[in-house]
């Protein structure tokens, strides 16, 4: 396995990746421009290419979207702006009962080709339960628990991010 | 007044600008990457700079955001993706009665400095009235009429876009 730079400033995400991949990653907290698109893979791929231009090393980025059924799938990749404006508590009350999907896309770019790995979960929106302030985790219930209520171990088996990381891991192992 | 290139593929917008500015514009339908930001002026400024890199001439772009009170101001610059997923009819029913603001930002870049001009209106959300399919015009009521119900003449006096264009006109005349 080559050395891969994970573009993130989030220590928690870094640990989650390292735990599942079973290897230490180099992290770089670059502040990259993200493009507007409803296509999560396009957003992540563009970000990986921009990171490579700066770092000139194999890079990995990730982006997560949240698709609310009652809003016909909106806000998708724009969920972070919904969190910043409405906040999770209000989102949980306003969209309570709606089914929802969460998707994480990992984009890996080695300078030749972008590879993307998508993990998805399906659940429903509930009034906030569990620690708040981590995106939509406290209002997104999958299998009876909100993501915020799950232990680290449960999340590393079941979350959209862990599913994307597992796919990425298989890809790396096959190389 | 120098020749200015208006980056748009929308014939209707082009006519509105020409009508208020009282001059013929060159239009170019460039498909530029837009950055993700809740700051409308930042989105428009970035787009103007990208357009200048390609055209190497004074350029003007515009971007419009829609700020729904009941969503604490969301979706702002991301309204086009809300329109594409939910559609105006559903937005009008779901957010009926909420006050809202619409903002247009024009960014003009002459190769030296970006200038921005913002026009704003305040109104409320109503179930769709008037021709649909033009963004949020049929669900955004200002002074008793939805934007879709207004005549071209009314819109060119009162819309957020016309207000931004008027500011831009004054700037051009002062140069």
How many strand segments of chain A? 8
Distance between the termini of chain A: 8 Å
Mean pLDDT score of chain A: 94
Assembly annotation: homodimer
Radius of gyration of chain A: 16 Å
The secondary-structure element order of chain A is EHEHEEHHEEEEHH
CATH architecture of chain A: Alpha-Beta Complex
Structural class of the helix and strand makeup of chain A? alpha+beta
Helical content class of chain A: 25-40%
Q: Key terms for this structure?
A:
homodimer; 175 residues; alpha+beta; Maf protein; 8-stranded mixed sheet; 6 helices; 8 strands; 36% helix
Account of the protein in words:
- By secondary structure, chain A is α+β, with helices and mostly antiparallel strands.
- Helices cover 36% and strands 26% of the residues of chain A.
- Chain A has six helices and eight strands.
- At the A-B interface, strand 4 and helix 3 of A face strand 4 and helix 3 of B.
Please give a quick description of this structure.
Two copies of one chain form a homodimer. Chain A is α+β, with helices and mostly antiparallel strands.
Summarize the helices and strands and which ones pair or pack.
The structure is a homodimer of 175-residue chains.
Chain A: E1 5-7, H1 11-21, E2 26-28, H2 40-55, E3 59-68, E4 75-76, H3 79-85, H4 88-94, E5 99-109, E6 114-125, E7 140-142, E8 145-146, H5 152-158, H6 160-174
Parallel strand pairs in A: 1-2, 1-3
Antiparallel strand pairs in A: 3-4, 3-5, 5-6, 6-7, 7-8
Helix pairs in contact in A: 1-6, 5-6
């Amino acid at each position: 396995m080559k050395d891969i730079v994970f573009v993130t400033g989030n220590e928690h995400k870094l640990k989650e990746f390292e735990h599942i991949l079973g290897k230490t990653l180099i992290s770089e907290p670059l502040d990259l421009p993200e493009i507007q698109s409803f296509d999560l893979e396009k957003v992540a791929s563009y970000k990986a290419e921009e990171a490579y231009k700066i770092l000139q090393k194999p890079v990995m980025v990730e982006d997560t979207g949240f698709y609310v059924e009652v809003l016909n799938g909106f806000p998708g990749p724009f969920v972070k702006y919904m969190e910043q404006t409405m906040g999770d508590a209000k989102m949980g009350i306003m969209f309570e009962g709606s089914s929802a999907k969460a998707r994480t896309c990992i984009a890996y770019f080695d300078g030749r080709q972008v590879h993307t790995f998508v993990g998805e979960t399906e659940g429903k929106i509930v009034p906030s339960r569990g620690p708040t302030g981590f995106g939509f985790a406290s209002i997104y219930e999958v299998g009876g628990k909100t993501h915020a209520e799950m232990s680290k171990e449960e999340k590393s088996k079941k979350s959209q991010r862990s599913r994307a990381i597992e796919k990425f891991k298989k890809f790396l192992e096959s190389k």
